[in-house]
Amino acid sequence: MAAPGSDIVEEMRSRVVLGEFGVRNVHTTDFPGNYPGYDDTWDQEKFEKNFQVNVMNMMEDTLEFDMIGIDAALANAFRRILLAEVPTMAVEKVFVYNNTSIIQDEILAHRLGLIPIKADPRLFEYRNQGDEEGTEIDTLQFQLKIKCTRNPRASKDSSDPNELYLNHRVYTKHMQWVPIGNQADMFPDSAIRPVHEDILIAQLRPGQELDLCMHCVKGIGKDHAKFSPVATASYRLLPEISLLQPIEGELAETLKKCFSPGVIEVQNLNGRKVAKVANARLDTCSREIFRHEEFKNLVRLARVRDHYIFSVESTGVLPPDVLMSEAIKVLMGKCQKFLDELDLSQMD
Amino acid sequence: MAGEMQHRRASAKERGGWWILVVCKKKCLAFENVQANGTDETCVTFVLLDEDHTLGNALRYMIMKNPEVEFCGYSITHPSESKINFRIQTRGELPAVEPFRRGLTELMEVCQYVLNTFEGSIKEYKDQKENEME
Lengths: 348, 134
Fold this sequence. Notes:
Chain A: One of its GO terms (biological process) is DNA-templated transcription. Chain A is α+β, with helices and mostly antiparallel strands.
């Protein structure tokens, strides 16, 4: 084995290498006993020294941040929890009193379930199994009562449904929140509503009507995707492009075309064109360079193993930074649960 | 319920057969550990109910970072069963529950630090944006 501290060992430990025919050093290998000369025992202090979070961009519903100095096992746990284990409120039970529209009851119920509901899930409890009624602490009630009619003021020769009919499109804005118990005092008006008011639920024609009552409950994405709080949550590793030798002239232009725009810059040095890596972060890691024989040994493509570029896109129920915090708390909750149970089992 | 559990455990121990430890909390079993006959406490399979790769892989990483652990791994028994078999074998005489407990504690500490750092960075970003607005 190569000597400790040598380049080859360092590369194995810290980079995922993109080769012509495959990806090398994919798995984490820095465990105690694997590398002579390295102490890979868990060290909280060392971790705290290396760990960094840099927020790159945050909007109302999206968040992009870098998490540096952490292992895939943990980063992936956070991502998985964001997708499947951070709770939200969603329509779970639909009571259909009347539905004369063309859309069937079960399809309608499914569509209603997928509508994101603006309500802070942290203020609610999970509904107990078998409970059909629900109370103010575990249920939100919505009503959808709408009937389509002819527009008496429509011109005779019109063929535009928007002009001919009234209420022929049912949107989420037609859903009325019905407070249960003390909910009217707890939440201000318009605090509880669908996130978007312009989601089309159904289309009606004159004489058709909907009369529905909906119960929203708290749930997690593992149970049904409608409870997932994110539109998507993903991460990628930071790309690293190294030019092993200076690449000049026409080759520099060809090299530039192999990468995403903005990754390679061609500079003019004393009348010579020289390629330079401007921003490797923008690269999609396509490995296009390996189709060019001349670049195979001049460029090294890799990804930094412990640099995660997270992107979290919320459905609008909670801000994306709150979702991430909640996800971390969920993982802590899991650990605490098993620690408590261990204590219980070892008491006697 | 608790009495029943204790009885089960005692009789299993006396039989010297499979030694099954079932912890019972609020009627739902969330955790049990299974040990085969003839082996010692240094090789234990913990059955974690209602868990998957999320906790399994994160915890495996933390426990494998412990030099006293010879082997640590997990498997999902079957796609339709929501539980994992989490195996720990230690070097020397150390009972496998010790690294298991330590792994959970360390994972908690890591999460706490990640949470603090994340919230700090978010606050910094928000403050910076606010200053730019003014």
